[in-house]
Each structure stands twice: as structure tokens, then as C-alpha cells.
Design a protein that fits this description.
Number of helices: 27
GO cellular component, one term: centrosome
Organism: Bos indicus x Bos taurus
Subunit structure: Component of the nexin-dynein regulatory complex (N-DRC). Directly interacts with SKP1 and CUL1. Interacts with TCTE1/DRC5.
Distance between the termini: 160 Å
Main location: cytoplasm
Strand content: 5-15%
Pfam families: DUF7885, F-box-like, LRR_6
Length: 734
């Protein structure tokens, strides 16, 4: 053992011994403390701790109570605020409702007052007209109170020249000549050169003479840019006078029976600047076809519809000389003599064609379309109506062009197969018309849904389309851009797809659901939520007055058709008219349950009406039509066919009040005399008249009695007769 370890061991032992003896000495030397005091100290500490715990517990409960109380007070305050807000809203809504009711009542009173005033003034004017037995000129008619609040005299010549030109540009040739006969000031205004840039002789073809046409063309030869001779039977000398117009750009000689190759030679040699040429339904031959590329080298628009005297060789002439290489639009409707070789000749001569129209051509085949498309890659619009032999192959051949508008009608060979890859073949297509194509089903609508530029879709008479296909179409991006949708006669459509239609088609303007028999008021409720709608056709559907009341809340509709709807009544139409002050077109034809009340509602609320059809409504009378004539001065089209109670008095009222009337249909109106109809035909542009009894499909007889009721009555009478005879036989047997 080393000395260091020895020292450490001794030191540890000494310290241990000292600690042990010191502890023993301390216990002996220091007296022990009082245990009671120690216990008291512990009790005090315990009491302090217990008080602290008690305070903490009480404070916790108090805090929870205060917190809950605050929450209760906060909730109560929120409830009070909500109650106050609701009460304030109720007061505000009640005041708004009262004010709206007052405003509505005031507007209704004003409309009724205005209506009564105008009826009184119309009656006074009728009385003065009948007492004086003379014709009232338009200015005298206005001075008598049409419209309410007289119009002060004003000299139109004081207007700026631009405004005068704009006003007179809306007049026809006949009206322009009449205005020039008013006075010298008006004559000077009608002699402005810009008014004679376009002359339409077709509107006055029955009254104008060849001599007058020649004089007009000679006088305005430097100003004339557009001429319309449609349907005019002119002499060769008159047609030669067209050559005076060296600056002519547009010429329409369609349906001119006297137009020949010789007259076309004079025109073509003198008018090389023609851009638009319409030769449809004329007797031109290959000689004229040879003239077109030689002189009309800037020709862009050419119509040869129903010209059956030229051949495939004539189409080959289009490539001679400068050629018709600038041709953009071509119409070959009804030219059944053209073969596949003829279409090849067109493709070689006019490769820049963009718009192609071929209607009423049963000889058109897929090969014809393929021959044309091989070189005409710029075609963007195709119209093929009445071509039953066109199939999916032609549709596939057109995929090489940038098609934006396509129209097929009455074709049974077009199927869903042509639409399978339409989003890749026609990515920019915007207009699709596939009317009366029986092979199209819901699968086609599903294929159309990815099109991003589609704005117009017409699938009328495609009877195999239903709610499933329409829903699939609406799921795609095409639904958000669609503006016009025609699904008339799609009999499987109903209310199921209308909810998605209102949700997705927020840009829809025109909707046609004619003869969709399963559409009810529930579907109309969804349609009313499409606030962009302007025109709706619900003819032949199962809607009632509730549907019309729902549509009245739309307030922006301008066109409504509800013909052949048996469940609507006068009340529904009346409510709809109250909410549709901007209505311009209404069709309630073949609703025999309607009466004069609807005409009165139209006269009060819809004074901007331009088109009205009440055909097949036998309860309409002269008194209602008098109100309509007194208020609706903008009426252009009127159909009262089958209104058996109307008389000559209606025509007198229309002649006096509706001076803008252009088309009048009054078939099966037996109380209207032939003399009155002939006199009215000289005022309107188009008139249909017959005094025979209404046909059976109108649903009522010559006295306005329903044929169904007659049939039911006859059946009941026959049953009663049969029962009586049976009873008598039994009595005799007894």
C-alpha cells in the first residue's frame, strides 16, 4: 500500500467517524422541538392549501358560470338582433310590397285610362269617317289623336342630311315616289343620289311599266349599285337598259320569264363590275355560262337554282378566260341535270367556293360531293336539303374542309356514325341543322357535346331523341355557348332534362319544344329561369295556366307560341300579358276555348305587338278586333283563319288602325264578304281568304260548336235509344 492511499483511507475514516459522533451529540445536546407546534404548522399549511383549493374550485365554477352566462347573453343578443333584422326586413318588404302594389295599380290604372281614351278617340274617328264618307290621310289620322298627345307640326327637311337619308332608306320604291309628290321640298329630299343606290322593282312589278323602268335607269345610271327584277316580266329592250348602269354591283333577275341569253349578253358586256348575280329559275343556257367568266371576272356570288337548260359543258366554261376564280357563294338547287363530271368542272373552275347550297336535288350522290371537295378545300357552309341519297360518306368527305355551318334535311341515311368524330373533324363548327333525319339518336347528342363553338342546333323531327341524349349534350362545353335550340317534334322529351337545360344554357335566346307532349308546367318552371330567352315555342305541349303564370315572371320574352294547348284559358293568357309588356309575337292558334278577353289583354298591355295568330279561335268577335286595331298600330302579321264570327267591320277597323299590316290570313271566315277582301288585298302585301266552312280538323263546325261534344251527345243519344228499345222489348215480352 502506498502512502497516498493510506492517507486517503485515514481521511475518509476520520470524516465518517466525526459525522457519526456529531449527529449523536446533536440529538443529545439539542432538545427536541414541540410536536404540537409542528402539528400546528402542518395544520396551518393544510388549511392554507385547502382554502386555496376551495377558492380555486369556486373560482372555476364561477368562471364557467360567467362564461356560460356571457354566451347566453351573446346568443340572446344575436337572437334579438335577428328578430330586429327580420322585423325590419318585414317592415321594409311590406312597404316595398305596398309601394309595388301601388305602382302596379297606378300603372294599371294609367294603362286602362289610356286604353279607354284611345278607344274613345278611335270611335270618334270612325264616326267622323262614316259621317263624312271620305278617306282620311295619314297626317289627318294622326292629328285626330294617334297616338295620345298630339304631334306638333315639323318640317323634316330641317333634319341633317344623314338623318333624312336614314329615314327615306326604309321606304320602298312606291313609297319613295309618293313622298316625292308631296311638295317641292320633299321632292328634293327624294332626289338624293344615295337613295337610288339600290332599286327594288320586284315590289311594284304588277303596277310599274317598262317605260318607267327605262326612264329611272337612264336618270340614275351613275348611282345605281343594286337592282332587283325578281319576277318581273320585262321586254328585251327594258332588260337592255340595265346596261346603262356601268357601276352595277348586284343584279337579281330570278324568276324573270323573259330573260334570255341575248339579254344577258348586253348586260355582261356593259356591267363588268357585278359581284352578285342571281339567275335562278330562268331559261339561260350554256351561252350565258360562257359569258360569265369572260366579263364577270370579279363575280363572288352566283345563283343558278332551278336553271335546267345548261349542262355539264356549261359548267366547264367557267374556267375559260379570267375564270370565276373569285366565286365564294354558289347555289345549284334543283339543277338535276348536273352529273359527277359537272361537279368536277366546278371544282376545277371555282376552287375558292366557301358557301355551297344544293337543295331539291334527288340526283345528288356522295360521289358528287367528293368530286367537289377534292379541290374546294375552303368550303365553310354546306346546305343540302332534299338530297335523300346523301349518306355518312359525304359527311366524312367534308371533313377535309373547315366546315362552320352544315344543313341536312329529310335524309334517312344520315346516322349517328357521322357524328362520332365530329369534335376532331369539325372543331370550328357553329351551326348544325339536321331536320327530319330519322337515323339520329341520343348517341349523336353525346358526340356533339364537346363542340366549343356550337351556337345553333336544330334537330327538329328527329323523333328518336330523348331526355337521356339531351342531358349528355348539356354535360359538355357546347351547352354554355348554345344560343338557338330547336327540338320540335322530339316526342320523347319531357321535364327530366329541363332542369339541366336551365342550369347550363344561360346564353340561350331561342328555344323550340313544339309538340313535346310530355312537357308540363314543371318543365316550364325551369325554362322560366333562363333569363336570356327571347323566344319560346311550347305549342302542342301539356302546359296549363300555371305554366303561363310562371312564364309571366320572365318579363323579357318577345315571342311566345302556345298553339294547340287545350289546358290554357283566357285567365292564363291575361296574366302572361300583364307581365310581358315587351311581347311582339303571340301564337294562340287552334285553342278554341279562348275568347275576346285575350284580345283585350293584348290591346291593354302588349301595344308593341307585331305578329298575332288566333286561327282556330271561333269565339273572337269584331269588338275585340276593334280594340286591337285601336291600340296595336305596329301589327304586321295577323292570322284570323277560322274566326267565324268576324265580319267586314274587322277589315274596316284594321284599315283604319293597323296601317303597317302586311300579311293578313282569313281563311274560312264566311261572314267576310268577297268585296271587302278584295279591297283589303290592295292594302296588304299578302292576303289569304276563303268564305268556306272550317274543315273538320279545326275541331268545330260552322257555328263554332265543338265536334267532340257533338260526338259525345250523339253517342249518349244512341245509348239512350238502345236502352229504351231494350226496355220496350222486355215489356212486350212480359
Amino acid at each position: 500500500m502506498t502512502p497516498e492511499l493510506m492517507i486517503r483511507a485515514c481521511t475518509f475514516y476520520t470524516g465518517r467517524l466525526l459525522k457519526t459522533h456529531f449527529h449523536t451529540w446533536r440529538e443529545i445536546a439539542i432538545p427536541p422541538t414541540n410536536e404540537d407546534e409542528l402539528l400546528a404548522e402542518k395544520m396551518e399549511a393544510a388549511i392554507v392549501y385547502a382554502n386555496f383549493r376551495l377558492k380555486k374550485h369556486v373560482l372555476h365554477h364561477w368562471h364557467s358560470y360567467v362564461k356560460n352566462r356571457k354566451e347566453q347573453l351573446r346568443d340572446a343578443l344575436l337572437r334579438i338582433q335577428k328578430m330586429f333584422h327580420c322585423y325590419k326586413m318585414i317592415v321594409t318588404l311590406n312597404k316595398w310590397r305596398d309601394r309595388a302594389r301601388h305602382k302596379f295599380k297606378k300603372r294599371e290604372d294609367e294603362l286602362m285610362l289610356k286604353h279607354e281614351l284611345q278607344l274613345q278617340k278611335f270611335s270618334k274617328l270612325k264616326f267622323k269617317t262614316s259621317s263624312k264618307e271620305e278617306y282620311f290621310f295619314p297626317e289627318q289620322f294622326v292629328s285626330e289623336g294617334f297616338p295620345v298627345g298630339g304631334i306638333p307640326e315639323f318640317d323634316i327637311s330641317q333634319l341633317p342630311k344623314r338623318a333624312i337619308l336614314q329615314i327615306f332608306s326604309y321606304l320602298s320604291l312606291r313609297d319613295l315616289v309618293i313622298c316625292g309628290q308631296v311638295n317641292r321640298s320633299w321632292l328634293l329630299m327624294t332626289q338624293m343620289g344615295s337613295l337610288w343606290n339600290g332599286i327594288d322593282f320586284s315590289a311594284v312589278k304588277n303596277i310599274i311599266t317598262d317605260k318607267y323602268i327605262v326612264s329611272i335607269l337612264q336618270r340614275w345610271r351613275l348611282n345605281v349599285l343594286r337592282l332587283n327584277f325578281r319576277g318581273c316580266a320585262l321586254r328585251l329592250k327594258t332588260l337592255r337598259s340595265v346596261s346603262f348602269c356601268k357601276n352595277l354591283q348586284e343584279l337579281n333577275v330570278s324568276d324573270c320569264p323573259t330573260l334570255t341569253d341575248e339579254s344577258m349578253r348586253y348586260i355582261s358586256e356593259s356591267c363588268p363590275g357585278v359581284l352578285y348575280l342571281n339567275l335562278s329559275n330562268t331559261i339561260i343556257t350554256n351561252r350565258t355560262m360562257r359569258l360569265l367568266p369572260r366579263y364577270f371576272y370579279n363575280l363572288q356570288n352566283l345563283s343558278l337554282a332551278y336553271c335546267r337548260k345548261f349542262t355539264d359543258k356549261g359548267l366547264q366554261y367557267l374556267n375559260l378566260g379570267n375564270g370565276c376564280h373569285k366565286l365564294i357563294y354558289l347555289d345549284l338547287s334543283g339543277c338535276t341535270q348536273i352529273s359527277v363530271q359537272g361537279f368536277r368542272n366546278i371544282a376545277n373552275s371555282c376552287s375558292g367556293i366557301m358557301h355551297l347550297t344544293i337543295n331539291d336535288m334527288p340526283t345528288l350522290t356522295d360521289n358528287c360531293v367528293k368530286a367537289l371537295v377534292d379541290k374546294c378545300h375552303r368550303i365553310s357552309s354546306v346546305v343540302l336539303i332534299g338530297a335523300p341519297h346523301i349518306s355518312d360518306s359525304a359527311f366524312k368527305a367534308l371533313s377535309g374542309c373547315d366546315i362552320k355551318k352544315i344543313r341536312f334535311e329529310g335524309n334517312k341515311r344520315i346516322t349517328d356514325a357521322c357524328f362520332k368524330l365530329i369534335d376532331k373533324s369539325y372543331p370550328n363548327i357553329s351551326h348544325i341543322y339536321m331536320v327530319d333525319c330519322k337515323g339520329i339518336t341520343d348517341g349523336s347528342l353525346k358526340s356533339l357535346s364537346p363542340l366549343k363553338h356550337l351556337t345553333v342546333l336544330n334537330l327538329a323531327n328527329c323523333v328518336r331523341i330523348g331526355d337521356t341524349g339531351l342531358k349528355q349534350f348539356l354535360d359538355g362545353p357546347a351547352s354554355t355557348k348554345i344560343r338557338e335550340l330547336n327540338l320540335s317534334n322530339c316526342i320523347h322529351l319531357g321535364d327530366a332534362s329541363m332542369a339541366k337545360l336551365s342550369e347550363r344554357c344561360y346564353n340561350l335566346n331561342y328555344l323550340n319544344l313544339r309538340n313535346c307532349e310530355h312537357l308540363t308546367d314543371l318543365g316550364v318552371e325551369f325554362i322560366a329561369n333562363i333569363f336570356s330567352l327571347v323566344s319560346v315555342d311550347l305549342s302542342g305541349t301539356d302546359i296549363s295556366n300555371e305554366g303561363l303564370m310562371t312564364l309571366s315572371r320572365h318579363r323579357k320574352l318577345k315571342e311566345l307560341s302556345v298553339s294547340e294547348c287545350d289546358k290554357i284559358t283566357d285567365f292564363g293568357i291575361q296574366v302572361f300579358c300583364k307581365g310581358s309588356l315587351t311581347l311582339e309575337h303571340l301564337d294562340v292558334s287552334y285553342c278554341p276555348q279562348l275568347s275576346d278577353i285575350i284580345i283585350k289583354a293584348l290591346a291593354i298591355y302588349c301595344i308593341n305587338l307585331t305578329s298575332l295568330s288566333v286561327a282556330g279561335c271561333p269565339k273572337i268577335t269584331d269588338s275585340a278586333m276593334e280594340m286591337l286595331s285601336a291600340k296595336c298600330h305596329y301589327l304586321h302579321i295577323l292570322d284570323v283563319s277560322g274566326c267565324i264570327l268576324l265580319t267586314d267591320q274587322m277589315l274596316e277597323n284594321l284599315e283604319m288602325g293597323c296601317r303597317q299590316l302586311r300579311i293578313l290570313k282569313m281563311q274560312y271566315c264566311r261572314l267576310i264578304s268577297k268585296e271587302a277582301a278584295i279591297r283589303m288585298s290592295s292594302i296588304v302585301q299578302h292576303q289569304e281568304y276563303s268564305a268556306s266552312n272550317p274543315p273538320l280538323w279545326f275541331g268545330y263546325d260552322s257555328e263554332g260548336k265543338s265536334l267532340r261534344e257533338k260526338q259525345n251527345t250523339s253517342l249518349k243519344n244512341s245509348e239512350l235509344t238502345a236502352k229504351e228499345s231494350t226496355y220496350n222489348n222486355e215489356e212486350e215480352a212480359v
